[in-house]
Please model this.
Amino acid sequence: MVQNLRDPGTPLVGARELRKAFGHRARMVTADQGGHGAYLLLARNRCANDTVTAFLATGERPQRDIACPAEPR
Model:
């Protein structure tokens, strides 16, 4: 799961509930930024993009949830 901390369309509280429902099978990558869309063209957070791209390329989940710091736009 990938989530911006300040997404007005899909608030963080909902993502946290979904993450909890998936349990140990899921990992959540949060990016300290606003807006809707936390991956590639809609977002410019290198930490989040690199983490998601690594999962898509290898199929391996991160060992734990990842909180990516804010980056200047």
